[in-house]
Amino acid sequence: MVTDIPHRASRKELCELHFHLGQSLEPQILWSIAHEQGIKLPSKDYWEFHDLITLNKEDVTWDDYHKLFHWTELIQSSPVAMERTVYEVVSGAYRANNITVLEPSFNPMFRNRGGEQDLDHIILAGLRGMERALIEFPTVRAGLILLLDRRLPVEKNAIVARKAIKYRSRGVVGIDIAGPKNGDFRYEDYRKLYDEVREAGLKTTVHTGEDGTVEEMAHVLKVLALDRINHGFRCAEDPAVMKEVAKRNLCLCLCPTSSLVLKFIKDTAHLKTILRTLIDSGVKFCVNTDNPSMLKTNLAKEIGLVRDAGILSEDEIDQTLAWAREASFIPTQPGKNLYL
What we know:
Elements: E1 14-20, H1 27-37, H2 46-52, H3 62-67, H4 69-75, H5 79-97, E2 99-106, H6 119-136, E3 141-142, E4 144-149, H7 154-166, E5 172-178, H8 191-199, E6 203-204, E7 207-208, H9 214-223, E8 228-231, H10 239-247, E9 251-254, H11 256-261, H12 268-280, E10 285-287, H13 292-295, H14 299-308, H15 314-327
Parallel strand pairs: 1-2, 2-3, 2-4, 4-5, 5-6, 7-8, 8-9, 9-10
Helix pairs in contact: 1-5, 5-6
């Protein structure tokens, strides 16, 4: 349970655009959901389960990172689990961190138990959970992003993208491409699909410029029509790529702790060099958590990290929050959440 939370009036209204449902639930809630569904876990000891789904070692590999998703995705693989997951994530983010704009992402293909569960039921359950949270906390605005994955064939990713289009009026706000590298994956295969999604009124983003190279990021920018970028900090290595990002008014959704843990960013001094370079080059960015439960972090801690390390001033932090709200995929209308 979160304790000693300062009164809302003393805290900033935060906005988070880049985090995954798979690792956004607190371990005790995942434990509860697993037992509600009778899922056989690898251990009957809660603390062993807790260590299983959080990163508890110093040297973390990219492979370690993705293996942890297996259990969280399995536990969330039912309509009942998805409704509670999204409800807990959206309502908890507001109560704990005063996050009033948030866009959790997930891949429904990884929550249908290999085809046993119906994708529409999974997606609609997530949307019901979001609606429950928004009814309880009417100052919050939220929207779901459906993830495509580099490990899946184009045909399956196209199904996810078209489900996003189908439920755009219910609260799905965009699509994203994530997942580890796959030699068979080609961004060119998604050009028309991304255009189709945008023509239907949805927004698009992609994970790039983190584990890959700046050259890969430059290629993605040429191939896909984008509204923002997840990670993308490697553009700081190439003035031409930064110029293109700034020209297209793309906000980078950075995740400091995640990139530091995985050693894609060496240390806070390296992080400072990157962020100061982006600011000096007119590139917009915002701070996010990526996988908060796995990393034992939250958005307030991430903002505190860049503040306490002397990387950003308070005015610059406020500017990143303004950029995040500006980059949000959620349709806006003063005083109204359009999905209720």
